[in-house]
Amino acid sequence: MKILTLVDGSEHSLKALDYAVNLLSQKNSISNRHNDTIHSKHKIIILNILQPIKLSDEVVQHFKSINTERKSSLKKYLDDINSAMKDAWIKKLSDLKSKYEKTGILISTKIVKGTHSSLFVAYSIVKFAEDEKVDMITVGSVGTGGIHEKKSLGSISRNVAEISTRPVLIVP
User: Fold this and answer.
1) Contact 70, 63 (CB under 8 A)
2) Sequential DSSP letters for 53-110
3) What is the β-pairing status of strands 2-6 and 43-50?
């Protein structure tokens, strides 16, 4: 079984990852009773959609008309922030991979560049799942953008569940 798990750093996304690992660990222990090998046929892909900070054309045009030096320093500053965010996610995903590889499940990680549109992010996730031929998608009920006391389901979770042709497990 191959499971795609979305991780955005929220408590709910980490619970979804735990759930996927536990599910496949149970499948491993059942299949290993009938087999002497302990190699897993199961795989989890931990996916992060990186949402870089981007300026609107109007803001860029405003800075261009005011001061070119200021515009270039602002662009460099945003590039540095986006690069630091990507580096931080590479480290976080590497740490998660190391943590869960001890279970014997094959773990891989992937970062996909996204936008701040929840519908576009959902389509990116579903396309990735189709391309990777995953059997199931696990996702937290609410991500970092949601307020879990007020929302029962985040927009990305809802959109993925609505458009995916694969089963989607939403973990609270």
Assistant:
1) yes
2) ----HHHHHHHHHH-HHHHHHHHHHHHHHHHHHHHHHHHHHHHHHHHHHTTT-EEEEE
3) parallel
Structure tokens at 147: 């307020």
- DSSP-assigned beta bridge partners for residue 95: none
| CA distances, 74 to each of 39, 58, 116 (Å) | 50, 14, 20
CA distances to 28, 108, 111, 141 from 169, rounded to whole Å, are: 19, 19, 21, 9
Q: Work out the average pLDDT over 29-58.
A: 73
Rounded to a whole number, what is the largest CA-CA distance in the chain?
Answer: 72
Q: Tell me: the pLDDT tens digits for 18-43?
A: 999 999 988 665 555 555 444 568 99
Please state which of the ranges 27-31, 55-59, 94-98, 109-113 shows the lowest mean pLDDT: 27-31
Question: Rg of the Cα trace of the chain?
Answer: 19
| Whole-number Å distance between alpha carbons of 4 and 130 | 10
Apex CA 125: angle with CA 51 and CA 169, to 5°? 120
